[in-house]
Fold each of these.
Amino acid sequence: MATSASRLGLVGRRWSDWLYPLVPLPVAAALTWADGHRLIHLDGRHILAYIGWALVQQWAVLALVMGRLERTGLPRTTVILVTASLFGLLHTPNGSLMQLCALAELWWAWSFMRSPRLFPIALAHAASALLVESGLTGHLLRSLEVSARFFL
């Protein structure tokens, strides 16, 4: 039986447990390079808070929602698609952000099914989001705001 530390991903059996979740990061970097602006400085407290927030989001989506979907007996592909779609919808009504998040979550949901480690996925989520926040908002993305805050 796996320990809590191993399920979180704080200890991993394979290097790929840490490497695979990072695949969306070069995609975020390429989008930022292609259509972004100079990177803006992000406060260290903001970065740490976002890492924690990414861990909470991934726990809720992957461990809770996807875990329950898996128990329904749906095919793995359907579980991954529904999970990613729900994660994208959480970023409503910011259309560009919804699409980026759904695509990234497709990969992270597959990675989590392959190796259920939350912390590497949360770090990859935070790194990708912080890179996009630092260099892409205001161009391809209007903002990272969601819900009613998007309209303000």
Note: The chain has a mean pLDDT of 85.
Amino acid sequence: MTPNPQVVGPDVPVPEAARMMKQGGFRRLPVVKDGRLVGIVTDRDLKEAMPSDASSLSIWELNYLISKLPVGEVMSKDPITIGENMPLQAAAKLMLEHKIGGLPVVQEGRLVGIVTVSDVLRAYLEREAELLVGAESG
């Protein structure tokens, strides 16, 4: 799990959330209001919020409208979450079953971390390395 992940509020404009994701190198942001998880926004959500090339609006009109669009309008509400004591294998199974790349980790409704596919792969590789070292020393 990645503890204390970067978060965004539901009133943050979509371009600001996109900038945060790009700068941080991540693909999802938990959305928190008054300390409680209210949703999650992904890079895909943000891309889908952007206007189509077929729009008849000018680039200035589009930029103005997008700058006023809050994350709360494009986020996934009530995301699937896990508790901090859930086994990693169970979290991986949930991600696979629901075709999602990350799970917010909550404790009493408050966000304490996030588990992503990268976290699962990292844990798998660490476990494999431990097994290899154990086999070589045994």
Note: Residues 117-137 form the longest helix (21 residues).
